[in-house]
Amino acid sequence: MKVEVRLFATFRHGREKKQFMEYKDGVTVREIINKLDIEEEEVAILLINGRDGVLEKELVDGDVVSLFPPVGGG
């Protein structure tokens, strides 16, 4: 199955902004971020198809996962 992963801010360093990845059925968001070498604690916002998501969510073909690190500014 294919999943689109969108990375934002510092998660883009050394990685593509959008990645289209092939996974086995039932892959979770946690497995994807582990494969991308992103620490779970670094994920501040996780969206699946534009809605709040959780690391344990099993994805289906065509899902879009968006990952944001904590951001600051002022």
Commentary on this structure:
The chain is mainly beta. The protein has a single domain, classed as Ubiquitin-like (UB roll) (Roll). The protein has 1 helix and 5 strands, in the order ββαβββ. A hairpin with a 2-residue loop joins strand 3 (45-48) and strand 4 (51-52). The longest helix is centred in the middle third of the chain and has 7 residues, at 29-35. The protein is globular, with a radius of gyration of 12 Å. 12% of the residues are buried. The mean pLDDT is 93. This is MoaD/ThiS family protein. It comes from Oceanirhabdus seepicola.
Query: What is the name of the CATH architecture?
Result: Roll
Give the domain tally: 1
CATH superfamily: Beta-grasp domain
Distance between the termini: 41 Å
Report the sheet-strand fraction.
Answer: 25-35%
Helix content: under 10%
The total of beta strands comes to 5
Q: Which H/E pattern describes the elements?
A: EEHEEE
The structural class is: mainly beta
Biggest sheet, open or closed, and with what strands and sense? 5 strands, mixed
The strand line-up of the biggest sheet is 2-1-5-3-4
Oligomer: single chain
What are the segments in which pLDDT stays under 50 over at least 5 consecutive residues? none
Q: What is the helix tally?
A: 1
- Specify Rg, calculated over alpha carbons: 12 Å
Whole-number mean pLDDT:
93
- Can you tell me the overall shape? globular
Q: What is the CATH T-level topology?
A: Ubiquitin-like (UB roll)
Q: In CATH's first tier, which class applies?
A: Alpha Beta
